[in-house]
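Handoff note, outgoing to incoming analyst
You'll be picking up this chain. Sequence as last confirmed:
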Amino acid sequence: MPKSLRSPRHQRFLTQLISLRKVKGLTQAQVAEKLGRPQSFVAKYEGGERRLDIIEFLDVTAALDADPCEILLSLRT
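Most recent structure output, in case you need it:
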């Protein structure tokens, strides 16, 4: 199994999260505030500099009012 960081699939994942944030009209700072984290946390995962673990992913999707299952299903192929 190849590494996933910076893979095309990982890029699609990040693109979805960024797009969701923008569609909701939120800035990185606003998402970070909802998460109780610094803005740099959002910038780093959106930029692919750091990974999200599953719990963080669930927290991010909750902050974006998004269904995590839909995001994961879109990444299956």
